[in-house]
Amino acid sequence: FPDWSQGDIEMQGYSGATLQQVVDKLFVPPPTEQVGRESSSSSEDELLMVVICAGENDVGNGLEVEDSLDAMDKLLEKTTSRRLFYHLIFLGPKFEPWLSDDTSSRKHYIKLSKGLRRRCDGHHKMMVTFVDCLTMFCGESANVPGAVLGGRAKADPKYFATDQLHLSDEGYRVW
Fold first, then answer.
1. What separation in angstroms does the CA of 122 have from each of 24, 109, 127?
2. Which of the two ends of the chain, N or C, has the fewest CB atoms closer than 10 A to its terminal CB?
3. Is the model's pTM score more than 0.85?
């Protein structure tokens, strides 16, 4: 965000958090606080961009997809109830190397991704962009027939750290 200084950016990270825990901890500034913009008499000129990646830990913790989608509804409500002019960018779940042999979790990731997209696309109180990351780190296997539903999309280890869970520097550049 080239027009914003370091002081204009609020970073929050909750390692290992579920989507509901992110909702509970998420700092949302009050409507009177100006973030990232020159002061203006028109509230329509205010815009705070929020980027969130959450939901993958829900699957890892065995939560039901519907519980995660309920938490997404709460997230959307929390952000819009405090300020109308947000742009929320929600980064959907991504296939990770550990999912290659876990078809049950893989199906949950697919279902969660589709549900989160529907929630984002159906939200009209603020600008919401869903970024489909499901096969973003799968290299060429993302383009083969049956990549997602047929289980042929495989996470490329070059995009992941040695734990094969978190992104590597190359993965972060793609993201």
1. 22, 20, 11
2. N
3. no
